[in-house]
Design brief:
By secondary structure, the protein is of the alpha/beta class. It contains seven helices and 19 strands. The strands form five sheets. Strands 1, 2, 5, 6, 7, 8 and 19 form a seven-stranded mixed beta sheet that branches. Strands 10-17-11-12-13 form a five-stranded parallel beta sheet, covered by helices on one side. A three-stranded antiparallel beta sheet has the order 14-15-16. Strand 7 and strand 8 form a beta hairpin.
Length: about 325
């Protein structure tokens, strides 16, 4: 592939990411007349493209398939006038504004404002059976998918706070929750561990890893192994929730925008401003707590409004400077 950089393209509003946050930002930015250009990234639609039934997003009383919902978001953004493009940011220079972003190593975009909505990726175990049964009993979000396993035996894989939260949530709707922890202790906070230990229908399996997810078209059980004894055993669960963490898709922004120790972009509390003027962040790339489609969409809205107000203030300031200069020359 020819990697010579093309002539830069100047845009007012550049949105990076095509999930709920990116598409919602595009809808609001387009309606505000910012003529947003959206690069949808390597997986347009984000994590919801790997989700089957979505029943907790407002406006879909009968529920909706994740890919269909993202298609609806995309169509709405397109109808509002957003310029949706395939491609991903591979390099940035946020020394502006304006800011420079390189797309697919070849195309340079110069933008007055940039909205980062690149999302996060759930960490996986790396098993072939995990991929095969993803969305068919294997899930990465108990709050999103737990309802589908109400009244059934389930498992949570992980030993951190998120795993504990998932197990506690599931314990309220499932008769037995098996918690598979690969070490002989949890990484979770003491208070979360105490809550788990005090919940009678959560069964903790120490020193335990998943060997295989069983089933062809839907999960029928888990083959697990005790790493100390070597013993293998079958858990007859219908749902398995992998809670070993998420990785924010923020790597290319390191050195430019401020992040926490896990790589989540820091934003002004209650706003979407980053530490870089003219750069905003929305969705899971800056949200390590909620990670829901509806909260991602909400921050996408906020980012577009923040960007619009920022540009309006900047343009008003420039206009005042020109007027003052003209008066001085009169």
């Amino acid at each position: 592939m020819n990697e010579e950089k093309q002539t830069p393209e100047r845009v007012r509003c550049l949105i990076l990411g095509g999930g709920p946050a990116g598409y919602t930002a595009a809808i609001y930015a387009a309606r505000a007349g910012l003529e947003p250009v959206v690069y949808e990234g390597p997986q347009p639609g984000g994590q919801l493209m790997l989700t089957t039934d979505v029943e907790n997003y407002p406006g879909y009383p009968e529920g909706v398939q994740g890919p269909q919902m993202m298609q609806d978001f995309r169509k709405q953004a397109e109808r509002m006038g957003a310029d949706l493009r395939y491609g991903m940011a591979t390099e940035v220079d946020f020394s502006g504004p304006p800011h420079k972003v390189i797309i697919d190593k070849t195309k340079e975009i110069v933008a007055d404002v940039v909205i980062i909505a690149t999302g996060a990726t759930a960490k996986k175990l790396g098993l072939e059976s995990e991929e095969r049964l993803s969305g068919k009993g294997v899930s990465y979000c108990a709050v999103c998918d737990g309802f589908f396993f109400k009244g059934q035996e389930v498992a949570v894989i992980g030993g951190g706070d998120t795993a504990c939260e998932d197990a506690l949530y599931l314990s309220r709707i499932c008769p037995t929750v098996h918690m598979l922890v690969r070490r002989d202790q949890m990484r979770a906070s003491k208070v979360m561990q105490k809550r788990v230990f005090n919940t009678p229908n959560i069964k903790v399996h120490w020193n335990t890893v998943v060997e295989e997810f069983l089933g062809e078209n839907e999960l029928e059980g888990i083959k697990a192994r005790n790493v100390k004894t070597g013993e293998t055993f079958i858990l007859p669960v219908k749902g398995a929730f992998i809670a070993i963490g998420h990785k924010p898709n923020s790597e290319i922004f390191k050195g430019w925008v401020e992040m926490d120790e896990d790589g989540y972009i820091k934003t002004t509390p209650g706003r979407t401003f980053t530490n870089v003027e003219g750069v905003f962040a929305a969705g899971d790339v800056q949200d390590k707590i909620y990670r829901q489609a509806v909260t991602a969409a909400a921050t996408g809205c906020m980012a577009a409004l923040d960007a619009d107000r920022y540009l309006a203030a900047k343009e008003a300031e420039e206009s005042e400077e020109v007027e003052a200069q003209q008066e001085g020359n009169a």
